[in-house]
Design a protein that fits this description.
single chain; 400 residues; alpha+beta; five-stranded antiparallel beta sheet; 11 helices; 16 strands
Length: 400
């Protein structure tokens, strides 16, 4: 999803920035503004008022230690991609009035780059490495609001909740893990309000794409190393076999076609792989060897939509039950009703959130569901995979 510009087409940037400050003053003062806040801004301000944040600023800032910054950087899948984009950004002669920030999913600023003059101005706001830049800490801002909305956000001048931030613009794009769909963090470009340019949104989106592509390239390289390391074992293995990583992505398959991913393996837990039957995962140094031990090819599911939704899985002679979130239960029920035709991401967003503007959130939910259940849910369109049979019941009495 691309960044929606904070500047209406044809409007003068200085005039519009002044109008936004007047809008902020009117709304906070309890009067009716001539210019209404955008829905995104209105939702965020409502959250800020409920939290009791002060519009004048001075809200307590939170930060983490240098040791914690180092730990988070080291563990972040964004690490190499963020450093690479920082170098590209620094080489851009137009970046003299911009601040590039990469924060993690907790809103902690892990990397920051830009001209010294812009960094000094950011320091006065506490916008430094290690700072927690969530809505709860600093009010409406692109990083915190992008995390809250799980969507790209661009804010200008008076759209920020704290008055101290009215001299700034900020543009942020959430970064997701392409392997799992998990939200990893946010890439943000900020600067003096009157230097905002329409191309900044495209620059932030480019950074987001580069980061996710780099993570995916590293993932592919890991799968290749995993395949090569498992070759001696595969040569001594007869019958169908899979080699997968910890997330269930397939590095190698022999004797069966299962697609790109299966359920994430776990020690001492059998897997139900559609078209493959019941499988036993065996730990490898950096992945799993998965082999079938049952002739059953169909996977039977029973979804219980009681107050604590659960999923009963029957594959071959093996059965188990696991709790699922209400959102994942809702998705399974929707796909069950959709039948073989399945649902597009737009249709799923409409069904889950009431509109088609939450594609990223809908896709992320399906990715998390697939991480738990793997090939039970197929994509393009979203549907129950071939060989999967689902029944839905309501409550403990098991009635459909």
């Amino acid at each position: 999803m691309s960044v929606h510009s904070a500047i209406p087409q044809g409007r003068s940037l200085p005039d519009y920035a002044r109008d936004l400050v007047r809008m902020h003053e009117a709304v906070i003062g309890g009067s009716r503004p001539a210019l209404a806040p955008r829905p995104l801004v209105s939702r965020s301000w409502t959250r800020m008022l409920r939290m009791g944040l002060a519009v004048q600023g001075g809200n307590p800032r939170a930060s983490v230690t240098e040791e914690e910054i180092a730990r988070r950087r080291y563990e972040s899948p964004m690490r190499s991609a963020a450093q690479e984009f920082m170098q590209i950004f620094a080489a851009n002669p137009d970046a003299s009035h911009m601040l590039l920030v990469v924060a993690d999913a907790d809103g902690v600023v892990l990397w920051r780059g830009g001209a010294a003059s812009v960094r000094r101005r950011a320091d006065t706001l506490g916008f430094a490495e290690g700072a927690v830049w969530t809505e709860a800490q600093v009010g409406t801002n692109a990083i915190g609001t992008a995390l809250a909305e799980v969507a790209p956000v661009e804010l200008l001048s008076g759209e920020h909740f704290e008055q101290d931030q009215h001299t700034w613009y900020c543009t942020a794009c959430p970064v997701h893990d392409p392997r799992t769909g998990d939200l990893l963090g946010v890439i943000d470009i900020s600067g003096p309000a009157l230097t905002l340019h329409p191309a900044i949104g495209a620059l932030a989106e480019t950074g987001r794409r580069l980061m996710e592509a780099q993570i995916w390239r590293c993932h592919q390289e890991h799968l290749e190393r995993l395949r090569q390391s498992a070759e001696p074992l595969l040569a001594a293995t007869s019958g169908p076999a899979l080699v997968v990583d910890d997330h269930g992505w397939v590095a190698h398959s022999s004797g069966v076609a299962v697609g790109a991913r299966i359920p994430a393996p776990a020690a001492r837990q059998t897997l139900a792989v559609p078209g493959y039957g019941v499988c036993v995962p065996e730990r490898l140094p950096s992945g799993w060897l998965v082999r079938p031990y049952s002739g059953g090819r169909k996977v039977l599911l029973e979804l219980d939509l009681s107050s604590a939704p659960s999923l009963q899985v029957q594959a071959g002679d093996t059965a188990w039950r696991r709790l699922v979130t209400k959102r994942h239960a809702e998705i399974l029920a929707l796909l069950h009703r959709a039948g073989p035709a399945g649902m597009s991401a737009e249709a799923l967003s409409q069904a889950l959130f009431g509109d088609t503007g939450h594609l990223i959130a809908a896709r992320a939910e399906v990715s998390r569901l697939r991480r738990q259940l793997g090939g039970i849910v197929a994509t393009r369109p979203y549907r129950l995979a071939d060989g999967v049979r689902l029944t839905v019941t309501h409550g403990d009495n098991g009635e459909p």
